[in-house]
Amino acid sequence: MDDERQALALEWACGLSGARSHIVNLSTHGHNDRVAYAAAHTAVIYDKRTRRQTFLQVRAPGTRARARAASSVAAPGGGSRTPPRPQGHCTAIIAIAVSEDRALLVTADGGADSLLVVWNAASGRPLRSVARPHAAGVAAVAVAPDGTQLATLSSVDAGDGIALWDLAAALAGGGDGSDDAGSAPPLEAAARTPVPAGDVQAALAYNAADPGELVSNGPRRAYFWRWAPGSPHLAYISPPLRAADFRQAVGDFVASTFVPGTTQALTSTVDGDVVVWDEQGLSAQMGTRASDRRAVKVMRLHGAAINHIAAIGAPAPAGGRPAAPSGRWPAAEAALTRAECARATTGGLVVTGGADGLVRFFDPQLRLCAWFEQLDAGPVACISFATRGQRCAVAEMQMHTFVAPDFMVSTQAGKVLAVPAASFSATDADAADAGRGELLVEAPAAALTDLAAHPLRPELLLLDGDAGRLIRWDLAARRAPRGAVRPCAACAAPADLPTADCCRRRATVAERALPRELRAMRLALSRDGGLAAVGCECGRVLLLQGDSLEDAAALRHTRQPIARLSIASSGRLVAAADGAGQVLLYGLLPHRGLLRWELVGRYHAHHAPVVGLAFGEAPSGATRLFSLGADRRLLEFELAPAAEAAAGLRAAAVLDLCGAKPTALAFAPPLPYFSAGSLDTLLLVADEAFKVRAHNPDHAHGTAAATFLGPTFGGPINRLLPFRSVADGGSWLAWSSAERVVGLAAWPLDGDPRHSMAVIAHPGPVRGMALSFDGRKLVTLGEQGALNVWDVDTAALVDPGGGDALALELELGGAAGGRGGAEARWAHLVGDAALVEELRDLICYAQVAAQPQDTATPYDITGRVPVAALPDLMRAAGVFLSAADVAALHAHVAFLAALAPADDDAGLGEGSGPGEACGPGGAPRPPASAAPGSVDFETFLCLYANHRPTEAVSLAQIEQAFATLGASAAKGALPARRLLELLQQGGDAMGAEELQRALRVLTGAEHVEAALPELVDARTFASAVLGFESE
């Protein structure tokens, strides 16, 4: 509901959350056209008439405020490890409920950081919220029939099993939806009671005739709860249920409801039965009350599990129900008895929905009144009714005629149907056909494993490996194409009348069935969309024609699962990486006058999982293939021999990368044509340290050309997709982490969090990501088939708010003593004003130290420091660089010089942000001629912000280092002599004198032998040598 311009704005959410697939029918004027449901962690209201989705979101802080928060909450690496907690659901919504008059909508999620939100159902605005309503999240929600109370169940046994919340008091004076949930007074629990014996409950329902009574059930027990106004606790009874009492086994419970007009309650089971509970009456045993319920019988209503059971009341009598001064239902008045309330709600029906796909209606005596058996949409999960302008949905049998409002049905297949109730009594064929329901919402599949975007049209290919389906999805229509038929030249049959077997194979291209036993895992499309590759768990690679999805080849040369796939731009080469670190190359090669797919060769490239496999084109146009492993090895493969089958695959170059473990690989977008590096091939490598390093594979030793602080929202980046924006014409990177978060970052990177952004796209793992052919849509894939389509507006990051951006620059400039905005920006990102001033003094000292000391001429303080002094300045700031880090630092200076404008002395003046590689009016700036010999203070702060570690060295890391060096598993210790030998070998080896000098400074010992005990473990080394405080 936020109108602020966003770089990533959710446009469409496909799919329903969970197997229960709760929906709420919000139709209030006879039209069966408005429904609310949960799509993962997002609550959605869909309007059939406008065909639009409204996403229920609490108004979040603005883009600029988010950037400021992310940059000011400084971890050791200068960035926030997680984005500021959004004021909305972060985990999957478990429960959704609505008041009887459809005025209030309630959503709740599970997990430790759960949230309960009450929404205005008409406007979609939040009214009130509760953070952590239960310690372990919410399992079920129910709204009282009079709309003044809310009940919740805890998802696990955490000592707060059931809670009641007073909606009337919380919404007094604030029910118009004008207030944000974050600023309004929170709801307060009126009563809490733990569930006895740790019997976790999963379903909850109010008694429409008596809002002070509720029923809940878990898999094996049902509880009847009663609350007296003013009491902090609920009384309860849990009747025993023994199979021997009914001479049959009773399956696990699913859901419960009260039977309208009676004292009975029903609990459905996974076997298709219902357990009938009724008051004991005169047969009550000693120690129990006559009003306590017991199981009286078990009845079979469905042939499969009854996933949904609910009651729908009868119309009020002609005289109306007795009015109450408070405006509540009669049951809310203490003077009215339960019997009087029951008489006020006589009649009504019980509705059930089963895993057999059937919807059935029963009268209070459980006699079948109506049935809808033509839905053909999968197991029924939930049923919800329109209100027809009345206070609540009502139904009854009138003169043996079924009369009920229209209703909606959700299924476990991810579909929502609108069903007209009158279709049950219809006699003409068209009206009877309406009993099948109108499809409102459709999920592509219950579970998807991967996706790929068509490069030439708004279309996706979706892979459902569990069900063995390859689905074509129309992004514009937001559904699978209907009736896509191709003509067959073999029999010259009309395109829409396939007759021969070949026609039947070509008849539809909307979906392709795959053998389920193959367990397809990975999917890739060629640049022209003419070839699709599917990687399977058994090691097979299936190649399909892009349009017809017909088989092109089935190849299997490994028994390991296919982990990565990539297709060359020509469509004639396909690379695959398996779970054992092996890279396989396939080519479309001549064979007996024809072309067929053959194995070119395979190469055991990595001894750790392959995290990146990419074909790309160098600026010269040559096709290149690279693989990246978690073993820090980056390989390029020779493609020249790929013109022959079994020619073999060889590594043309192997680069051993330094630093943290890599997590993603992508070809960088081209640099501006006027820059010195415009003809270089750059590879982007993301790692676990939240760094993104640009590598030039043509340079010796694999030194990174530049090191950037990547987005630090969520976890490390595991996917990178470069693209060109149609909004501003610039180059950008779409990225995702393994869990929850996706985002955008401007290219070239600069480490400024304001030039990147992130959203919580899914409540769990992000299984896939793809960009539409025009770069306007980003599609992300989560668990349970959740598919989100995002509008991409990069201009919101280039100029996020116009005047607000200028105000922030002026604010930062004032905070930095009125200095330039760019310098102030980097000083702000460092996050420590005292450190910045100390570094400024050190810069001045370095300038003085670099000039002759035995002269009377004044020192020339230019504000620039020699590049050779940068490592010492970094160490003075607490960043201790290895030899590889120093080389990367110098390479980064040269990289910045190549991008900087020519009118800057060293090519490193202001303008390192996105879009600043152009001069006034967008004219390109000429390249710098060479790397500078000095840098200014602003550039140094930029280097410091990008190269410092994102987190301090921990004791666990030192213990891991000792284990790697060969410390004993029992004590985790090394002999001091062995440790000193290792410090003088391999890596950044230290000389004997350097080692002695370092130990003297650290420990004060004059001799090396005295600095360390005979056996050194990680804790001793950290405290006695490095000076770490004890953890």
Question: In summary, what is this structure?
Answer:
The protein has about 1050 residues and is of the alpha+beta class. Helices cover about 15% and strands about 35% of the residues.
Structure description:
The protein has 1031 residues and is an alpha+beta fold. The chain is built from 18 helices and 62 strands. The longest helix is centred in the C-terminal third of the chain and has 17 residues, at 833-849. The model is unreliable at 60-86, 316-346, 484-508, 801-818, 902-907 and 909-930 (pLDDT under 50).
**Major sheet characteristics:** 4 strands, antiparallel
Principal-axis shape equals globular
Total helices: the number is 18
Strand order of the largest sheet: 1-58-57-56
- Could you tell me the strand content as a percent range? 25-35%
Structural class: alpha+beta
Radius of gyration over all CA atoms, rounded: 34 Å
Mean pLDDT: 80
The proportion of residues forming helix, as a percent range, comes to: 10-25%
Spans of at least 5 consecutive residues whose pLDDT stays below 50 are 60-86, 316-346, 484-508, 801-818, 902-907, 909-930
The N- and C-terminal alpha carbons lie at a distance of: 45 Å
The number of E-state strands comes to 62
